[in-house]
Specification:
Helix content of chain A: 55-70%
Strand order of the largest sheet of chain B: 6-7-8-3-9-10
Order of helices and strands of chain A: HHHEEEHEEHEHEHEEEHEHEHHHHH
CATH architecture of chain B: 3-Layer(aba) Sandwich
Oligomer: heterodimer
Number of domains of chain B: 1
Radius of gyration of chain B: 18 Å
Low-confidence stretches of chain B: 1-7
Order of helices and strands of chain B: EEEHEEHEHHHEHEHEE
Mean pLDDT of chain B: 88
Distance between the termini of chain B: 15 Å
Strand content of chain B: 25-35%
Structural class of chain A: alpha+beta
Number of strands of chain A: 12
Mean pLDDT of chain A: 84
Largest interface: A-B, 31 and 36 residues
Strand content of chain A: 15-25%
Helix content of chain B: 25-40%
Chain lengths: 414, 239
């Protein structure tokens, strides 16, 4: 007369779970409203962390877009009569410094760098853009290949050739839809042949359009436009990301020697490690994420109080049932367990739905904003565990109250 | 009567010695039971009768280990249970006592068979055995086909029979019935009472029936009358 399913041996725990599940399903709307706090709490924790991780990834990417394993050597600050200027004021770095740095063991390659804003003219059009003098190693250091044409060679740098490689934004402004390669542009009254078009790089971390530029050989820049022998900066690419610190100390030692700086005098240059910069930026992004997530965690706490509230109501409502269960032999611990399982199932459900919500929010943000959010497993597991703990913690008092009922009084309750 | 206590050694199933119960509400205390002495042998069918306020419900609560007396001793199978903790009492209720209440007291959310299985669940049985025991108990009250139904899908008389099945499923030696026919018409009431008789006769279970209805009390073999917290008479009922 009984079907097979009924005869199946059930484990006690699953029986408890099933019973809790059935109980909660009887009051669907109430159960849902109870866990709404948890849903929103977990959802916002997941969403904020995914935003934070997306942001820190974006920072990482934009710092990487400057070039991989990059160090920047800047001229030092001057100190005249107690007044200190900023970095990059003293003319201390030369093109020969760059060639010396290139030979260091931890350094893969480098490029002298001198940038100036110049008016670039092509036929009737003109455009003010950042004209950068660089070595032929520029594309490698900046991870920035050409899209069309070619980049200038080391020979062209040595011979100070009048060639230019143009960034995408500058090309669009000057040439519109015309292919710029082969055309001649005028910079500072010097004609340059455009030999290449750089691929699109986008904005850097400071909101600057990196594509609004024209790159020419550093030698040409120094001799024909700037009229100087000092470079503004030397971009250095270390062999690996681990070598950046080593490269930093090698460069420092080398330049002190080349610039004949006595031991007691400070450096007349400054080496900035972009990998360190990235780490700093990342850690500040992380701090921000932790802050947001802890605010979100407060809503989880509020959700937990909601669970406690409803569990208290539920215990009162089911006083009679508790009395019946006690009369037929339920111990205090049985009653405690029953209500604890119920509140845990509730909050765990809330947690699962909250994860769904968090996923939804973060993919919506990815879809409708430039920020690409990243959902990782860590916050999911943490918030599941946390919501379970909330259920147990806030379910404990109501369950305890239920377990302490007097069976005679509980049975009399109508 | 082979199940009659005196033949199985001289230990009575239940022995109450000078049981007193005082409730305190604020500054006023009510003495509900005044020195109850009582012995119930194994296999008896005892009806406890009294008007409301006589203390019979309190007496039943103490006999059923739901409540502890303020004074006196309660020996259940020669074990003093008046000083036990609430968890120890719960275990005694689970193993030794089955309850049938006036309001049926089934858990609405659980199916009939699950209701019957509940005492077994609390004694730690969760397996096929417990289901077989529940099916057997339901067979005894002629409800073996209704196991998958829910309490609100069956009649009051049937619900009370489910409660009887739940009371006997653990093979408890004592069945306590508190006004078991109070919510039933006379036909269904008689039906339910016949099942108590059957359990008493066939299973040798001791039945303690609490009622204010003389006719229902007549189903028992001994009538104990309670008035003002005291037992005023205890007489054998002649059939």
């Amino acid at each position: 007369m009984n079907n097979d399913k009924e005869n199946k041996v059930k484990l006690a725990f699953f029986l408890d779970l099933e019973s809790a599940y059935k109980t909660l399903l009887r009051n669907k709307i109430r159960s849902f409203l109870t866990i709404l706090g948890i849903i929103i709490g977990v959802g916002s924790v997941i969403a904020t962390i995914s935003i934070g991780q997306g942001a820190s990834k974006a920072i990482q990417n934009s710092i990487n877009s400057l070039g991989s394993n990059m160090l920047i050597v800047l001229p030092g600050s001057s100190s005249l009569g107690g007044i200190k200027s900023g970095f990059g004021v003293l003319p201390t770095l030369t093109l020969n410094d760059t060639y010396a740095i290139r030979k260091l063991p931890a350094v893969k390659t480098d490029s002298g760098n001198l940038g100036m804003n110049q008016q670039v003219v092509w036929r009737g059009n003109n455009w003010s853009t950042l004209v950068v003098g660089a070595n032929s190693t520029f594309t490698e250091i900046r991870d920035w290949p050409v899209a069309k044409g070619t980049f200038f060679t080391h020979q062209q740098v040595v011979s100070a050739a009048n060639v230019a490689v143009i960034g995408n934004t500058a090309a669009t402004e000057l040439f519109g839809l015309i292919n710029p390669i082969g055309h001649i542009v005028i910079i500072h009254n010097v004609p340059f042949t455009v030999i290449g078009l750089l691929s699109v790089k986008g904005f850097n971390a400071f909101g600057q359009d990196q594509d609004d530029t024209v790159v020419i050989p550093i030698t040409t820049m120094l001799e024909k436009i700037a009229g100087t022998t000092w470079v503004h900066a030397i971009a250095v690419s270390a062999k690996t990301s681990k070598d950046t610190s080593l490269a930093q100390s090698e460069i420092t030692a080398l330049l002190r020697q080349r610039h004949h700086i006595p031991l007691h005098k400070p450096d007349d240059f400054f080496v900035r490690n972009l990998t360190e910069l990235a780490a700093t930026a990342n850690s500040s992004a992380n701090t921000f994420t932790i802050l947001l997530a802890s605010i979100a965690a407060v809503s989880l706490l509020v959700g937990g109080i909601g669970i406690m509230n409803i569990m208290l109501v539920s215990v009162t409502e089911r006083t009679k049932e508790i009395g019946i269960r006690m009369a037929i032999g339920a111990k205090k611990s049985d009653i405690l367990k029953q209500f604890l399982i119920e509140s845990s199932v509730l909050s765990l459900f809330g947690g699962i739905l909250g994860i769904g919500l968090g996923f939804g929010i973060s993919s919506a943000i990815s879809a409708f904003s430039p920020l690409k959010t990243i959902v990782t497993t860590e916050p999911i597991i943490i918030s599941l565990v946390f919501s379970l703990c909330v259920g147990i913690f806030f379910g404990f008092y109501p369950a305890y109250k239920a377990s302490r009922m007097n069976p005679v009084e509980a049975l009399r309750y109508e | 009567m082979d199940s009659y206590g005196k033949k199985n050694g001289n230990i009575p199933l239940i022995r109450l010695e000078n049981i007193g119960m005082i409730y305190k509400i604020g500054d006023i205390s009510y003495e509900v039971l005044k020195g109850i002495n009582m012995t119930i042998e194994k296999g008896e069918f005892v009806s406890i009768m009294g008007a409301s306020g006589s203390g019979k419900s309190t007496l039943m609560n103490i006999l059923g280990c739901l409540d502890k007396p303020t004074s006196g001793s309660y020996f259940l199978e020669d074990r003093d249970v008046s000083g036990l903790t609430s968890d120890e009492l719960a275990e005694i209720r689970n193993k030794k006592i089955g309850f049938v209440f006036q309001g049926f007291n089934l858990i609405q959310r659980l199916s009939i068979i699950e209701n019957v299985m509940l005492p077994l669940y609390y004694s730690g049985l969760h397996s096929r055995d417990s289901e077989e025991m529940a099916v057997e108990a339901l067979k005894l009250v002629d409800l073996s086909e209704k196991g998958n139904k829910f309490p609100n899908q069956i009649s009051g008389g049937e619900q009370q029979r489910v409660a009887i099945a739940r009371a006997i499923v653990n093979n408890a030696p004592i069945i306590m019935a508190d006004e078991p026919t109070g919510n039933l018409d006379s036909v269904r009431g008689a039906d339910v009472m016949n099942f108590f008789g059957k359990i008493n006769a066939e299973r040798g279970a001791t039945i303690i029936l609490v009622t204010h209805d003389r006719h229902i009390a007549g189903y028992g073999r001994r009538l104990v009358t309670v008035k003002d917290g005291m037992i005023i008479s205890s007489e054998t009922i002649n059939i």
